[in-house]
Design a protein that fits this description.
The chain has 213 residues and is α/β, with parallel strands linked by helices. 29% of the residues lie in helices and 27% in strands. It has helices spanning 2-17, 36-42, 50-62, 142-147, 161-179; strands spanning 22-24, 65-73, 80-87, 93-98, 104-106, 112-114, 119-120, 129-131, 134-137, 152-154, 182-185, 189-191, 197-199, 203-205. Strands 1, 2, 3, 4 and 7 form a five-stranded mixed beta sheet that branches. β12 and β13 (197-199) form a beta hairpin. The longest helix has 19 residues, at 161-179. The chain starts with a helix and ends in an 8-residue tail after the last strand. 36% of the residues are buried. This is CN hydrolase domain-containing protein. Residues 1-213 form the CN hydrolase domain.
Length: 213
């Protein structure tokens, strides 16, 4: 987590240097563990997580809002929450979203991953909220969010490589077409451990469906 925080600090500094108004980081930016047991053992509350506290300090120092995915302990200690945080330019956590749709997949010859074994499902859809870059809403479900006048949809992700190759770009472009919103998708990339590799390919897709980045 110390290494990941150091990497994120560099990204914050680069974003601040070009006068960005917000930085969008991926799902599970604090860590990607090699087992459900390790996932649970590493989780810390946002009030005492060095990773989150470090990002709050960076946000305040650089006057830069940060959208970041982290793990939090769930009640009972048997699972974690997969949480997306909005840290405002004052370094305060002002919005949070707990992942609703968990990733359970078993593909023959491909990935086998059951997120629900270690992650507690969220149960709330929070309405869009105002930011310096537009009216933002966390990921699910996009059409309902569009009806609530969301302008930006953010999909912080850690996609597996086979599902990423098959679905990543198509899903993001479909959400942009359906909602006529901008879609911001920050994605983990590369090998995390002996079991997990992420697809990457972060992108921003505009309502005209062509990737901006």
């Amino acid at each position: 987590m110390a290494h990941n925080l150091a990497q994120c600090r560099v990204l914050v500094q680069k974003a601040a240097a070009i006068k960005a108004k917000a930085l969008f980081l991926p799902e599970a930016s604090d860590y990607v563990a090699s087992s459900p047991i390790e996932t649970i053992s590493l989780a810390k509350s946002v009030t005492d997580s060095p990773f989150v506290l470090g990002l709050q300090d960076e946000a305040k120092k650089h006057k830069l809002a940060i959208n970041v995915g982290v793990h939090e302990p769930a009640q009972g200690g048997k699972k974690v929450k997969n949480t997306l945080l909005w840290i405002d330019a004052e370094g305060k956590i002002t919005q949070r979203y707990q992942k609703l749709h968990l990733f359970d997949v078993d593909i023959e010859g491909g990935p086998k991953l059951k997120e629900s074994d270690s992650v507690e499902r969220g149960n709330e859809i929070v309405p869009p909220f105002e930011t310096a870059v537009g009216r933002l809403r966390f990921p699910e479900p996009s059409l309902r969010l569009h009806r609530q006048h969301a302008q930006l949809l953010t999909y912080p992700s850690a996609f597996t490589v086979p599902t990423g190759r098959a679905h990543w770009s198509t899903l993001l472009r479909a959400r942009a077409i359906e909602t006529q919103c901008y879609v911001l998708a920050a994605a983990q990339s590369g090998r995390h451990n002996e079991k997990r590799v992420s697809y990457g390919h972060s992108m921003i897709v505009g309502p005209d469906v062509y990737p901006e980045i």
